[in-house]
Design a protein that fits this description.
Elements: E1 2-12, E2 22-28, E3 48-51, H1 52-60, E4 67-71, H2 79-85, E5 93-97, H3 102-108, E6 114-118, H4 122-125, H5 131-141, E7 145-152, H6 158-171, E8 174-179, E9 181-182, E10 185-186, H7 190-201, E11 207-209, H8 213-217
Parallel strand pairs: 2-4, 4-5, 5-6, 6-7, 7-8, 8-11
Antiparallel strand pairs: 1-2, 1-3, 9-10
Length: 220
């Protein structure tokens, strides 16, 4: 079996609590969502096909990395390929996901070491109806090193904050607030960031505000 990979590169992780760790990034093509703020090129144009064996060999050469980041797009769309690939991978696996394809996650959860899961706010993404999918995803993820990233802008609502905090509290998941960025500039001001963080903290304590650090450092 082969699948299309948009790119493979090494860099530092620029988002969430693992900022600064060196990773080898494998960017899968395709996504099941269409978020308003997406700035990632994951179309299959100019992508290269890899077999599981060939991709595993490339990944395993990077044994100085903290982990391999499976990113996209949405890696879990490639579940049959991942079922072949992951048993061959010899470094820790860090899954970056929109946290909606919970049935697919269940098939490979034993091979995953870290999960960076998005909570998609309708006010920022333009995508509705994902709360139950997120709930099911986090239920399957219990026991893993998992955190949830929440991209927000000035349209975030109290109801969204309440729903996100309930999920965090229910599953003991750290929440990472990430202001929507335009290049290296945040689309919300400092006062709004502080207000949003404090509103989250009034309901749930395991919350941090962390922007996309790789953009400030001008690295991928």
């Amino acid at each position: 079996m082969k699948t299309k990979i948009k790119e493979i590169f090494t860099s530092i992780q620029g988002e969430g609590p693992y900022i600064g760790y060196k990773q080898v990034f494998v960017r899968f093509c395709g996504c099941n969502l269409n978020c308003n703020y997406c700035d990632t090129e994951f179309a299959s144009d100019n992508a290269k096909e890899y077999s599981a064996e060939d991709l595993a060999k490339i990944i395993n050469l990077n044994n100085d990395c903290h982990s391999v980041s499976l990113t996209g797009g949405e890696p879990l769309l490639h579940i049959e390929f991942l079922k072949e690939l992951l048993p061959l991978v010899k470094i820790p696996v860090y899954l970056e996901t929109n946290a909606t394809l919970y049935s697919n996650l269940k098939e490979i959860i034993d091979y995953i070491d870290f999960i960076a899961a998005d909570i998609k706010l309708p006010s920022c993404t333009g995508v509705n109806g994902l709360w139950e999918k997120h709930n099911n995803f986090f239920e399957i993820s219990q026991g893993k090193n998992i955190f949830a990233k929440i991209v927000f802008d000035s349209h975030i609502t109290d109801e969204e904050i309440n729903s996100a905090c309930r999920l965090g509290c229910k599953y003991g998941i750290g929440l990472v607030l990430q202001p929507k960025m335009n290049g290296v500039n945040s689309e919300v001001n400092k006062e709004f960031m502080e207000q949003t963080l404090n509103t989250f903290l009034s309901q749930y304590k395991n919350v941090r505000l962390i922007p996309q650090v790789h953009k400030f450092l001008n690295v991928r």
